[in-house]
Predict the structure of Citrate transporter-like domain-containing protein.
Amino acid sequence: MGDVKSENSKDSIFTKLSGSFAEMRNRLSSSAMNLLQKRSEGDDQGQDDELPSYTDRSHLLDSRETFLHYGSMGTGETFNDEFDGIDDDHPLERNSLHGSSPFLPMTPLSIHIDDEDNITSSPAGLPGNGLEIPTINISQDFNFLTVDTRGRHGSGSSGFLSEPWNQGPISPTPTFASSFEFQHQPSKKFSWKRTIKISTLAIIYLLAAALITANNEKKIEFFQVTTQEIKPFQYPVHLPLPELQTYPILSVTVKGSFVPDNLENVTETQLIISVEKQDENNNIIRTVSKKWRLGIVVGENSDTVSESVRTTTFNLADINLDDDSKYALVFRTNSQKVVPFALNIRLLAEGIENGAIYGGAILIGLYILIIFEVINRTLSAMLAAATAIGVLSLFNERPTTEEMVSWLDMDTLILLFSMMVMMAVFCETGFFDYSAYIMYKVTNGQVWPLITGLCIFTALVSAFLDNVTTVLLMTPVTIRICEAMTLNPVPVLISIVIFSNIGGAMTPVGDPPNVIIANNPKVLEAGVDFSVFALHMLLGIIPVIIVAYIQLRIIFRSMKSLQFSEPYEVAELRREIEVWLRAADSLSSYSKDEGHVRTLLLAKIRHLKGKLKTRIRMGGQSEENYKQTLLELELSCKIRDWPLLIKSGIVLTACIIMFFLHSFPQLNLSLGWTALLGAILLLVLADRRELEGIFTRVEWSTLIFFSALFIVMEAVSRLGLLKWIGQQTEEIVLNVNPESRLTVAIVIILWVSGIASAFIDNIPFTTMMIQIVTSLAERINLPLQPLVWALAFGTCLGGNGTLIGASANVVCAGVADQHGYRFTFIQYFKIGFPMMIVSLIVSNVYLLICHTALKLVLAECPAVEKS
């Protein structure tokens, strides 16, 4: 019965359409005749010499024929308004679609049905412009009636919202939009600024590509050697002068049972490597280079230490080798037993020792591209990664593909991918919408109780759950709540990310830098277990949270700062256009169906842009009515799929429990593996025939950004930037009076790690700094725990400084962008960096009071007592 009504409704619409053509023809004919008469009399200045005698062709107006064809009107079928009698060389001037001039009747027509079921039309173009006959497409799967015109001068498509044919009978008064927009798309105008930008980036890329192409991949091939106290191994160094001038850096890589730097006290056996001058009989005259000392385990105990690789360099140019003398790379040991190890020796170009300068330049360039939004930040990271590899290639250090893959933190990437997949399935249940309704109801629609609850809840969850996972869970909920309260989600999202990083500093499992610090063997030897770590950090984080919340209230003291800078309706239309644009960009014309869908999406975008222009002219009207909004949320924000919600809830709960328990050694699952297994299980339970819809919601650009950033940071590390930062920190502390070394060490480590973590990935930085901190504590006899707390505070709180300072920041920005809310580096920096500075000041005061002024000692921790 519904199908019969649907067909009747369609027939009524098309009957009206066919009847309207005759009316429109008569109405436009009279207007066109008047126009032609005026043109023939020369009323329009400047056109007389271009126009022939149009009155001679006016008979064509009456000979115009109209054909209307429609059948069952299934999906993809069309009805056409076709015109005869006018040749394509008709020289009439093309009129503006929105002008007041009369249009010619031979002009192709676009049809418009308003809310009162009245049918009107407007010309889609004039003959002589290469425009094809307009086609009206009715799709069964989309809420659009499209009128398409295409020609040499551009293309136009109008999309009209309507009731879908597959949702029951059509109402006698279908809801069509009341506007049609023809969008002429001219070619981009020449711009010096754009040309300079593209040229500069292209030159950088070409230089990097040339360096990568000109140098072979670094292949480390080891050969086995042995050394002994009574018989050291010698490797002759005989280099021709031209080769020495080109490659004066001797890179030495050894592989064996070497103990970590922080565990050198577990063995007395050392391998000592240096360059020495010899006489004609190969006897050692003197050592001409630094001595590189490595702790190594030999004999039966060698199996207790895993095999590791160590690398150092010797600058032969600084040694001033004599052409008449003999030199050798000598490997000595203090062990009477034979010490086996693998050896690789390579020559590097001069300048690798100044690689920190190149590394710093690469990071500065990356931040310039991101801060000023020269190009997309993912593309910026990819370009920086290619440049970093090119610089390494310049020094004959080009890594292999396998080596670059090993630089990626696969556990983090798998965790992000898996959580994004689970969130994509979870959002189909309607849980986030329902959560927005509950939060709005609990807070009575008040802004600050809502923001306070979100920030505190996020901080508490981040203390025990990885803050990246926390942000992935909280971002969609926050966006839905802000939409319900007509708030700008961007400042609220920035707030919860900042509190997520602060809360993650409380425990050893809350933030990746804390995991690295807490698992260090020397830190464990100092008595820092889970409870001691959490207690010390909690006492410092509580005042940080209080001060950060006060600072947040000061920053957003005006409600206007939490609202859109323009009327909510206008901002919502802009966001909706962004979402539709992203959907259209994800489709191509590879297949007919995709091309058709993309056309419909572009039509919808043009319709929204027309509404946006109208709304901007009219202004916005935003009324705050709590009860009305609550009622609307109650009606619209409901659980849409209870079975899927139950399945998703079970899987997510199980994953979160496993996240809490992942630190137990009995569970051999990392965070990434746990999330991946959960994502696979949820996809199985969801029983989706097609997974493309799920995977399109994955933030691939965010994953690629992280991958490129991992490569950049590892390349910068190999260029020596992180090592240089650590060495400078160590030298500053060593140059201070012994009485003030602890105070200076706390301040320097806190602020260096905080500022550096705002601009450098804090994971490799923490890995490097924890070695410096433990070494510093041993060399100058400082208590280790205060230095550990300073490093933990600095690396965790420093991530709040910039948009790419912490993984959670980037993830939140990516998810928000997917929802149509994009915030820039500068937007985040204006809020995050001042809050980072104040947080570091508060934690600095806390550490100085505890470990310098009051000499706080915990009776439960003997290591602290001893210090």
